[in-house]
Amino acid sequence: MNETPIQISKRKRNIFVIVCLISLAANFFVLGAGISFYTQGHPHKVTDKTKSVERIEKRFLKRINIDDRPAVREVFKQNREQSKSLFESYYKERENYIAYIKRGEIKEIDLQMISKDLLIQERNLSRHLNAVLQQLILVSGPETRKKIAEMIRVRNGHHRTNRSWLPAKERLQKQPEKRYE
Q1: How does DSSP assign 10-40, residue by residue?
Q2: Is residue 29 situated within a structural domain?
């Protein structure tokens, strides 16, 4: 067979190279954004996990009345170190629990002890966050209290909807809304 070389003009070749480079750059951008999104969503270090305290504060401050922000910032500032230490101890205890479950041999007594330790850390964290919420309610005005109530109402059970083991028809049934007036 006689091969005939394909003749491509210099201009078309340059356009083809530019299109390939743009496509490659776009692929790297999408890949980098995906990796960045994945690593931000899954904190690995304790310091990454305790940054959630600051993110919670920022989100909360965005949603409340401007007049109440200085008092709310002061409440967050007073409780920040204790919140971080409780989050750290909770995450440490949770990691211990996960490591113990992954081991080959599990003893019932040890499992009960480590479960009890995890439960104690969860309760301590929950009590502290509840106390902070009470302080926030006390220092805020009526408009902010309404917004806090709305945030709690909207959040109630919202994070668990994807974890339900009920069939879809049962899971999606509307529950009568309780209103306290």
Answers
A1: HHHHHHHHHHHHHHHHHHHHHHHHHHHHHHH
A2: no
What is the rounded CA–CA span in Å between residue 139 and residue 132? 11
Helix (H, G, I), strand (E, B) or coil at 93: helix
Q: What's the structural domain count of the chain? A: 1
The per-residue pLDDT for range 95-135, each reduced to its tens digit, is 888 888 888 788 889 889 988 998 999 999 889 989 988 99
Q: How far apart are the first and last CA of the chain?
A: 90
Residue 123 lies in a domain: yes
Rounded to whole angstroms, the Cα distance separating 49 from 97 reads 17
Query: Taking a C-beta distance cutoff of 8 angstroms, is the pair 145, 137 a contact?
Result: yes
In a domain, 93, yes or no: yes
Residue 62: DSSP 8-state: H
For the stretch 154-167, pLDDT in tens is 765 545 445 555 55
Cβ neighbours around 124 below 10 Å, total? 16
**Two tokens at 2?**
């006689």
Judge whether 88 lies within some domain.
yes
